[in-house]
Amino acid sequence: MELLEGALAEEKRPPDVPEGLQEPKEASAAGVAEPMPQSPCAERRREPRFLCEGHAEIEVPHIGLKLQGEIHDLSRSGCFIEAPTVNLERGTHVEVYFETRKICIRVAGNILVLRPRTGVGIAFLPMSPRIAWQIEMLVEELKALNGAPCPEKHEVNPTPEAAAE
């Protein structure tokens, strides 16, 4: 039974793994199928992100930890929070509160990207239609203000320690 479950688990791609890392597969010299690397220029985000600024708070509900930061960019499916002191594992369930353009939003998410001494990328979890609509309207406003979305590999304001490395 365990072997069957393992085989089924291998066929399913985790939701946070880009398709290019799972398919197509090419055979190695040993005849074992390996994922083909994704182009470094390929966009991995589900939605374009737009620059914004404002206060943000990341809360880890099950331990009561609250961390302060600044929102850097926002999309319909996630955001990046500049918070140099955040040291949470990828996949950690969090609640994010942010305020930008005089709009306050609280939404659940998971840590998707951790950039030490810089911040975290958060993928939003399914939300109520009202919150989804608020985020949609905010993203449309940011799009009108900023024009083009921010690049996938954006530079945020590094801490003095990170800049020295």
Automatic annotation (TrEMBL):
Renumbered residue ranges of the record's region Disordered: 1-45
InterPro entries given in the database record: PilZ_domain (IPR009875)
Ranges for domain PilZ: 43-137
Comp. bias intervals (Basic and acidic residues): 9-26
Example GO molecular function: cyclic-di-GMP binding
Pfam families in the cross-refs: PilZ
Gene3D superfamilies per record: predicted glycosyltransferase like domains
Record's protein name: PilZ domain-containing protein
Species lineage: Bacteria, Pseudomonadati, Acidobacteriota, Terriglobia, Terriglobales
